[in-house]
Amino acid sequence: MTMTGRSMTSLERVLTTLGHHEPDRVPFFLLATMHGAKEVGITIKEYFSRAENVVEGQVRMRAKYRHDCIYAFFYAPLEVEAWGGEVIYAENGPPNSGEPFIRRAADIAKLEPPDVRGSRCLHKVMAAIEMLKQRVNDAPIIGVVMSPFSVPVMQMGFEKYLDVMYDQPELFDRLMRINEEFCVQWANAQLQAGATAICYFDPVSSPTIVPRELYLRTGFQVAKRTLARIKGPTATHLASGRSLPILPDIAETGTAVVGVSAEEDLAELKRACRGKLTILGNLNGVEMRTWSPAQAESIVKAAISKAGRGGGFILSDNHGEIPWQVPEEILLAISEAVHKWGNYPLER
Amino acid sequence: MASLAGYTRLCQVHVVDGKGEDYFLESLARRLETALLSLDEPAVREVLVLPEASSSPLKFVDQVIVPVLEDIGKGWEDGKVALSQVYMSGRILETLVSTMLFQTHHRRESQPKMAIATLIDYHFLGKRLVSSALKTSGYELFDYGRVDVDEAVGLVSRDGIDVLLLSTLMLPSALRTHDVKLKLKAAGLRTKVVVGGAPFRLDPTLWKEVGADAAGRTASDAVEIVNRLAQK
Questions:
Q1: Is there a domain that residue A270 lies in?
Q2: Which among A108, A301, B146, B187 has the fewest CB atoms less than 10 Å away?
Q3: Inter-axis angle of helices B219-231 and B66-77, nearest 10
Q4: Is B8 exposed, middle or buried (0-12, 13-18, 19+ CB in 10 A)?
Q5: Domain tally for chain B?
Q6: What is the CATH number of the domain that holds A314?
Q7: What is the pLDDT of residue A256?
Q8: For A159, which residue in chain B has the nearest alpha carbon?
Q9: B6 pLDDT above the threshold of 60
Q10: Distance to chain A for B16, nearest Cα, Å
Q11: Which of B66, B86, B106 is at the close of a domain?
């Protein structure tokens, strides 16, 4: 509740928790993308083909699931599409990146970033954000970028990228500088269109993927340089990757939020983040497909009990994208559980 | 740091003293693992040129290299080792083992006919890690690259594959493993399907749901699974 006794708006709730204070209730980010297509009653491919569809889907989902954000994320390979890469649509899952467009490491030498304003697919997202901004004024609109350090997995494939990272430092540096320019422009364009904050997806920085010593020389430096130039608040999401060993480093990059893994204990994460980073997570999206409503309730209750106290916690999934196969009934049960067990002060 | 030669002599004293060859090989495994995780290729070479490695490569693989791969895999599972270290260790070992230890006649004589593929997804790292671990352990396998369901079934049928290893990154692709299994069965093939990749790690029951015969959480799990299947 606010001082006047009314419920907080989603935006107030989120800002309060980001300030490491307890709002009226634990904020809940349902990072659902494809489920919007179900709401609108069209295929995934059709859904993402027009900004209006995504706007309608996001607004309808928020009304149904009563969560605290609008998620302006379309799909992971959107940026690759802007670079001229291939996007493959599926009937029952997120669009996936096709064959990498950087075929040989040497191609990096002549790589040029796409023009954000001139890209049709990026323009579609900006248009959606502008429309969402007109329709929603009580919840944060979350824009999304892939980190310059993580997007090469889609640009050139994981193996080739690791080879470059380890064996060809000059090409690696060039790739980072090009990607940073694009990332900053893309993030700022979304903020200008009306996004409240930017989620910086950076799974390769996770200790699941690279050891901390390497991260400190690479992804950490990239994040510090990039986030400093993004003209709005940022959240760093490791998309299911672990974060515990690098949480103090992540805090130093200037981000306010960290998206955490289902493979780590929320209580331990909370101890490490308290007062420094807000935790976003960590319901297991893949397992969610087979939960019963009762299971969903007890898992949500446990998560809130581990990480909710003192604010600095937003309940969400662990990956930043709810799988298509998760039934509506479970999303409703998760929402119901947050509204039932997430009210501050939390029960002891 | 003591030289490897001195270290080897020290370990051999234990063997001579009757304290066991196992102790010696275990010490070598620790040495090899440290060298691999710090990407110290010369130190890896030093271990592979030892007489214990070159005189009986398969025994050396089973008693030193496979345990090292298992340890690195477990380290990743526990969050102590990063995927890039798994990849780089595999890259170093794959090259050195094939050039320094194995000649064709040293390959395993009894092994199932195997193939590996990425199902639908264009993400090849997991496939490479598993393939590398198996080759380093003396196994041979076909690499089908990226396949869809029908391509997988067609290639398996053409090559008479006993064990098909399928790697996926995306959940919808993981779910399609079920179709591969059904179509193999419909074609009268008794090929064992072993799955791996992020969706199977995040949901430990998923492999059963899709009708796979086994699932590996790490590249070294694949070696253990194939060893098991090879004995059947």
A1: yes
A2: B187
A3: 130
A4: buried
A5: 2
A6: 3.20.20.210
A7: 97
A8: B125
A9: no
A10: 40
A11: B106
| CATH code of B28's domain | 1.10.1240
Per the structure block, which two tokens stand in for A326? 């998760």
Q: Is B39 on the interface with A (CB under 8 A)?
A: yes
Q: For residue B58, name the pLDDT band (cuts at 50, 70, 90).
A: confident
**What is the reported pLDDT for B123?**
86
Q: How far apart are CA B181 and CA B185, in angstroms?
A: 6
The domain that contains B215 carries what CATH number? 3.40.50.280
A333-346: pLDDT as tens digits: 999 999 999 999 99
Query: Which residue among A93, A98, A100 sits closest to B171, beta carbon to beta carbon?
Result: A93
Domain containing B188 equals: 114-231
Nearest of A41, A12, A32, A40 to residue A74 by alpha carbon = A32
* pLDDT per residue as tens digits for the range B187-216: 999 999 999 999 999 899 999 999 999 999
Same domain (yes/no): B70, B172: no
Q: Grade residue B17 by pLDDT with cuts at 50, 70 and 90.
A: low
For residue B5, pLDDT over 50 is answered with no
Q: Is position A4 within any domain?
A: no
Contact between B200 and B207 (Cβ < 8 Å): yes
Domain ranges, residue A67: 10-341
- A42 and chain B in contact, CB less than 8 A: no
Q: What pLDDT does B8 receive?
A: 47
- Whether the CB of B84 is below 8 Å from some CB of chain A: the reply is yes
Determine contact: B173 vs chain A, CB below 8 A: yes
CB A48 within 8 A of CB A54: yes
Domain membership of residue A347 (yes or no) is no
Q: Which of B106, B129, B144 is the last residue of a domain?
A: B106
Q: Which chain B residues are Cβ-neighbours of A214 within 8 angstroms?
A: 82, 84
Residue B173 confidence (pLDDT) above 50: yes
Q: What are the residue ranges in chain A where pLDDT is below 50? A: none
A346 lies in a domain? no
Beta pairing class for A141-146 and A197-201: parallel
pLDDT, tens digit, 9 for 90 and up, residues B63-79: 899 889 889 988 998 89
| A289 contacts B121? CB cut-off 8 A | no
Structural domain tally of chain A?
1
